[in-house]
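Key result, reporting period 2: structure in, sequence out.
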């Protein structure tokens, strides 16, 4: 019987195939007490299995194909750092030694404790690193049980099965496509995608910034995450349609539905081919207005994907990824300098905007900085982003010097997140001057930088003249601006439906920011999810935006909208949208 499961659309396209299920290793963990004589043996069991996983992931890194997405290598690095995390290791020893838990019970107990810390994090990307921790624990448990990686090579699932009417609708060969269905999928297991030729995947958990979503977009694989109980509802070898555009799974579809989605799939492939032909086409509206399409990146290696997508620069380099998952001291000046330089050189002379570290005291990073993490009643409103940086001048000065030094190798813009007060602006400017003086005194070369501020707090959007007095450009971080304007925690499922990019108050703040920057001849861009949403492209153009920054995979689709738009005729319509009580209805018209 046909039924559907709804989730989050994170990677566009249609995938149709037989389901290959991946079960969770934590579902059947044994729980029992041990005596003192066995504690050393239990600790050894965990250590041996953990070391085996380290060797396994290290081997995967070494054997990584040259054409593998660079995101996979970066995510494997995160897993290696988590495997060596002192909090995980010491916690497991505690439960075995002090509580006399068996090894598996101790490991899963410590996972739950650390997982709760991730749940409390305000930053969406960092919060979803809980999934990486879960996958690390899964791999250790599998080794403790002597179970190999759960991802089967193509051809093993459904082998020897007679083709059905649905099979024949899809292909006249016996090479039946497969889709992966799991509670979650680790980056290491994702490597099997290239070897196993999975057409797409679906997971119970995850969000738009989860590692599975990032890798899916980088590999251009249709995917749906956050589908809750999909791995329990779907059976091995079921026919499944993954609609990555609508965030929908259709299980056991009828021949008519299969034929319909087969047609959509072919149309999607044709559309993708047409978009690829736009890569070298100048981004101009019908009336000849040039629009800048930039890329958001997390690591220096991401520049290859940005260049391949035709980006004319990096509009947002999230530098906090250099600080994440570290078990020792924070990255020093030389390490940061080399990373920023690598990104600059990777863009081959195109501009790179580096955002200073956007992380807060609710993050694991704070433990390394020696600052207490307790007492954060509301991390979203606490010590984060520039507040955190200004509270730790030595750390901030280290980053500022590294960015200034890297600017000697190309065109660099420096972007400061979450500013709201004149005092914060003045402190930031003072520290930047201090960093320059230090480099001058040391005789270390550095380059000029354009200075920008993120507009992601309503207070900042309402005091634009103050910001434009000090900064060369502004960048609108729509994700946080929406969250703070509407008082919505987008991670809270009870209210997430109220997270509305089209709310009149949000659009007014965005419109006013663009208008004020244009009036003063200052640069302005949008670097949140709104920039990569093709449903918002025409409106942003009508509001006067001429610089969009987004994930590289979204660039060509947005460029297509720009090429079809007459910007001179969109302004009047955009004004109507702003005046509407329900702007979304006009956008859909």
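The corresponding designed sequence is given below.
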């Amino acid at each position: 019987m046909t039924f559907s499961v709804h989730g989050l659309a994170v990677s566009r396209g249609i995938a149709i195939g037989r389901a290959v299920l991946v079960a969770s290793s934590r579902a059947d963990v044994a729980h029992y007490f041990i005596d003192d004589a066995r504690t050393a043996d239990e600790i050894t069991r965990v250590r041996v299995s953990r070391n085996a996983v380290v060797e396994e992931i290290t081997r995967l890194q070494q054997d990584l194909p040259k054409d593998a997405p660079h995101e996979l290598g970066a995510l494997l690095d995160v897993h290696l750092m988590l495997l060596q995390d002192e909090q995980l290791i010491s916690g497991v020893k505690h439960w075995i030694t002090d509580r006399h838990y068996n090894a598996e019970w101790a490991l899963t107990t410590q996972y739950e404790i650390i997982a709760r810390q991730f749940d409390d994090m305000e930053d969406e990307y960092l919060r979803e690193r809980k999934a990486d921790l879960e996958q690390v624990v899964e791999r250790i448990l599998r080794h403790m049980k002597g179970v190999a990686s759960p991802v089967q090579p193509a051809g093993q699932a459904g082998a020897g099965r007679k083709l059905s009417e649905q099979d024949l609708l899809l292909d006249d060969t016996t090479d039946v496509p497969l889709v992966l269905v799991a509670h979650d999928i680790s980056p290491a297991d994702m490597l099997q995608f290239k070897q196993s030729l999975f057409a797409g995947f679906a997971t119970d958990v995850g969000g738009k910034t989860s590692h599975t979503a990032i890798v899916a977009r980088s590999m251009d694989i249709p995917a749906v995450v956050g589908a809750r109980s999909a791995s329990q509802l779907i059976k091995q070898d079921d026919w499944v349609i993954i609609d990555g555009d609508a965030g929908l799974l259709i299980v056991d579809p009828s021949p008519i539905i299969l034929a319909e989605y087969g047609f959509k799939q072919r149309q999607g492939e044709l559309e993708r081919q047409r978009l690829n032909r736009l890569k070298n086409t100048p981004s101009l509206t019908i009336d000849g207005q040039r629009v800048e399409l930039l890329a958001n990146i997390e690591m220096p290696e991401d520049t290859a994907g940005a260049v391949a997508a035709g980006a004319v620069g990096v509009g947002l380099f999230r530098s906090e990824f250099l600080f994440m998952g570290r078990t020792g001291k924070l990255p020093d000046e030389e390490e940061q300098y080399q990373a920023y330089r690598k990104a600059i050189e990777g863009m081959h002379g195109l501009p790179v905007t580096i955002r200073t570290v956007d992380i807060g005291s609710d993050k694991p990073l704070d433990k390394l900085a020696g600052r207490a993490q307790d007492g954060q009643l509301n991390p979203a409103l606490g010590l984060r982003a520039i507040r955190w940086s200004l509270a730790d001048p030595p750390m901030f000065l280290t980053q500022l010097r590294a960015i200034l030094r890297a600017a000697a190798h190309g065109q660099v813009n420096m972007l400061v997140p979450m500013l709201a007060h004149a005092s914060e602006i003045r402190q930031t400017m003072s520290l930047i001057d201090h960093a320059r003086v230090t480099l001058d005194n040391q005789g270390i070369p550095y380059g000029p930088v354009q200075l920008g501020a993120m507009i992601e707090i309503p207070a900042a959007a309402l005091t634009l003249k103050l910001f434009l007095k000090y900064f060369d450009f502004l960048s609108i971080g729509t994700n946080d601006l929406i969250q703070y304007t509407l008082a919505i925690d987008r991670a809270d499922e009870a209210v997430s439906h109220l997270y509305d990019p089209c709310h009149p108050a949000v659009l007014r703040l965005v419109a006013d920011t663009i208008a004020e920057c244009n009036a003063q001849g200052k640069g302005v861009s949008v670097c949140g999810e709104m920039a990569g949403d093709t449903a918002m492209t025409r409106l942003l153009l009508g509001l006067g935006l001429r610089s969009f920054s987004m994930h590289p995979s979204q660039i060509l689709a947005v460029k297509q909208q720009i090429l079809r738009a007459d910007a001179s005729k969109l302004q009047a319509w955009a004004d109507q949208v702003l005046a509407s009580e329900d702007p979304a209805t006009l956008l859909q018209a």
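The first strand starts at residue 3 and ends at 6. Confidence is low (pLDDT under 50) at residues 151-174, 366-375. This case is discussed further under Risks and Mitigation.
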